[in-house]
User: What shape does this take?
Amino acid sequence: MTDSPSKANLYERLLRQLRALLEGETDFIANAANTAALGYHNLPDVNWAGFYLCRGGQLVLGPFQGKPACQRIALGRGVCGAAAGRKTTILVPNVCEFPDHIACDSASKSEIAVPLIGGGRLLGVFDVDSPTISRFDAADQRGIEAIVACFLKNSKCDNFFASVPDCD
Assistant: This one.
């Protein structure tokens, strides 16, 4: 999927669907579960979509869709840990070329990880994997970052993360 106008339309449609899914619901876990499911079932050529959440200075597996995944990731390790540590989106065309890549599913060939920042605090990462090299591009980055922003806007993060030590 490389046609950016088509991708822009896809992400606009997904954002409309996500807003409808999250309307009236602020629970962080419920919204994370629906966000992961929406991405997994509607983004073409994806084999995993989900969340890693900050817990005690590391990332811990949260709601996701796809094969079973690594349960804990140290900050700075792998694509998710790098995105969390740098607090910036990491887009990896070929995970085999990414230093320190963590292979939870050997079928994954490309990946994008978007940090969750709420209230100036690192909350976790939204991660999407594909079995195709170079699956994700700048249009996907914009679209997935918009999905994360919508998720964060509609979810109560303060209550969920109140008793959890910062990852920072």
Remarks:
- The chain has one domain: 4-161.
- The helical segments are 4-22, 28-42, 78-86, 138-154, 157-161.
